[in-house]
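Subject: sequence -> C-alpha cells, single chain

Hey, anyone have a minute? Need the predicted structure for the following. Not urgent.
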Amino acid sequence: MLEAVDMSIDLAGQLQKVFGFSSFKGEQEAIIKNILDGNDTFVIMPTGGGKSMCYQLPALISEGTAIIVSPLIALMKNQVDSIRNYGGEYGIAHFLNSSLNKAEITRVKEDVTNGVTKLLYVAPESLTKEENVQFLREINISFFAIDEAHCISEWGHDFRPEYRRLRSIIEAIGTVPIMALTATATPKVQQDIMKNLNMVNNATLFKSSFNRGNLYYEVRPKKDVVKEIIRFIKQHQGKSGIIYCLSRKKVEELAETLNVNGIKALPYHAGLDASTRASHQDKFLMEDADVIVATIAFGMGIDKPDVRFVIHHEMPKSLEGYYQETGRAGRDGGEGICLSFYSYDDIQKLEKFLKNKHVAEQEIGQQLLSETVGYAETSMCRRKYLLHYFGEEYDDSGCSNMCDNCKNPRKKFDASEDICQILEIVDNLKGKFKDKHIVNVITGVENSAVKSYKHDQSKYFGIGDEKSALHWSSVIRQAVVNGLLDKEIENYGTLHMTEAGKNYLKSPFEIMIAEDHDYSDAEGDDEIITAGGQGGASADELLFGMLKDLTKKIAKKHNMPPYVIFQEQSLIDMTIQYPITLDELKQIAGVGSGKAEKYGKEVVAMIASYVEENEIDRPVNMVVKSVVNKSTQKVHIIQSVDRKLALDDIAGAKGLTIGALIEEMEAIVYSGTKLDIRYYLNDTIDDEIQEEIIDYFKQAETDSMTVALEELGDDEIDETVLRLVRLRFISEYAN
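Reply:
Had a minute. Here:
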C-alpha cells in the first residue's frame, strides 16, 4: 500500500511551510526519514518532545492516508482540530470512533476514499470491527502510527488488552510500515512493546533523553494539603494547572473547595457524562478555567503547551504514571512545576486495592508502588532517580537546583561501609530477595518470612539494628542507582549484585549519601518554593497582555482554544520582534503562512498601532473556606428534620448518640443550611427558656458554650439544651 516518497523533499522547508517551525527538535527529522523509507519505527520520546510531529509531517507529505491509533476520543478531537488549523481543507484530518453518527461516518469515509484525508485517527476498539477492517483494506494507507504504545505492555502504567491485538489486525489489513510512540517506557516495557508488535529484529529504535530540564520536581509531606494547594495556586494566579487525585469523590470535593476560594476550577473524571467531560476539557483549553482537578482519565496526549504546574494530591500508582502526568507541564519549554504530596497512608490504600487481583498482578503492582515510594522518600536528586528508572544515567550536577533535594540538600555522609554490608548480604542470599526482606534481615526483624528462610539464624541478622530501616532503604537505593545492585524486574524486584558491585567489594571507594526523607510524622507547614522556570517572561509585558487578550477573542470567534491560534512562545516572540506585516508574522516561531493568513491581520494591525503609539524602535497565609459536606448521613438528617422526626429516632437510625447527632447538625447549620427543629424544641423545652437563650445569643459576643453556661446559670439550662436552642438561633438568624 505504501507508495514511494520523493526523498529529495526538503523536510525542513515543509516543516517551516506547514507548521511555522524553522528547525526540528531532537531526532524528529531522522525519525521522519526512517518511516518515509518504509521502515518500522519505535519512538521513545518524553512528553513535550514533539512525538506527534513524527507522524503528522510524514503523513501530510506521503501518498495515501496515515492511520493513527489513539486511546482517547478527547485526544483524537484535540489533534484533529490542531491539524485542520494548520492544513488547508477541513477533511485533511478525521477521527473514526463511537462518538460519530452515521452521516458523520459517511463523510469521513468519503474524504478518505477521495484522497482528501491524510491522517485518520482511530481507537483500538474501532479496529476490531469487521466493517472498519474491510474499509481500511480498500484504501491507500501510508503507514500505521500507534500512539501511547505503552498501553500494549502489562508492565506499563495504563495497560489495555485491546492494544495487544493490534499487530494481528494491522496484518489483516495489509503490510505497511508501523510507527510505535510512547513517552514512558522502562527497559522492560520497551522489550514488551517490540515483542508484541513483532518489531524485535526489524525496527529502528529512536530513544530521546527522558530529561525535561525545565521541570521542577518537589515532594512535600501531606499535611494541610488543601490549604497548601490553595496557597500555591494563588501564588501562581492566572496560570494553567492540573491537579491529580486518585478518587472521583476527592476530585469533586477539591474542585468545589477551590471554586469557593476564588479559583476557577473544574472536575474531570470517568464518572461524568461524555458531554460534561468534553465541556470541561474545552473550557480548560480555552482558558475559561485555570485549573482542572482530575483522575488520570484526563490529559493523555492533551496538547496544551502552557500548563504551568501539575499537582499530585496523592502519589500515583507508578513512576511511569507520575512521569507522564508531570510531563504535561511546560510542554512549550517554559516554566513547569511538579508538586506532589506524599503520605505512606496513601500507598497503603493503593496496596489494599491490589488484594483482589491475581498474584502476578499483585506482584507487579507492589513492585511499581515500591518504586514510587523510593522516589518520594529519596534524598538524592529526584531527576537522577527518575531517569535511572527509565534506564538513563544522569549526572545530577546538571539538575541546576531544579528539584527540592538539589535546591535544599541534606547533610551527607560516607556510606561505603554500609554499602559493602548490603552487598555482602545480597550476595549471601543468592539474589533471591527484595529490598524489604534485606532491610528486615540487617535490622533484625523477626517476621514470618525471615523465620521461614531461617535468616534469623544468619550471621548478618541484626548486624545493622543500631540504624533505622529508613537508613538501610536509602543505602540500597543508592547502591541500585550507582549500578552496584540490580533489580530483577522479571522476578518482581529481587536484588542481585552486579559485576560493578563485586569490584566495589574488592576495592570500596567513598560514596556520599544523605538519609531519605521521613514523612511518617510531618510537622508544620513547609515553605512554598517557587521554581524559576525557563521562558514565560515577555520582553514587553504590556503588549504581551494585549496579544493574549486578542488571541482569546479570536479563539472564541473560531470556537478554538487560544493556544491553537498562537502559542504563548509565539506571543513572546512577537513582543520581541514586533512584526507589523503578514510576511514578518510568518517568520515568528510557530506561526507559519497558514496561521498568518487566517488570523494574522488583527494581530499585525494591533502591533503596528502599538509600535507607532509608543515610538518603539523595532530591530499567603489564608483562611480556606470549606464547602457543605454532602455526605449521605447529612442528607439523611436534613430529610428527617424536614419530616419532623424525633431527634432520638434520627440518631437511632444512624447509630448515633444525641451528642453526636447534634455535632452533625451543627456542621450542617454552620455551613449555611437551615434546619427547622422548632417542632422538637417546642415538645421538649419550655418556650420561655428558648426565648431567654435566643435573647442571650442575640447580644452575646461569642457563641461559646462555656461562656453561655456561666452567663445564664440556670439549672434547667444544661449544655444539650443550649446547643439545641443555639441550632435554632443560627438557622433562623444566620441562615
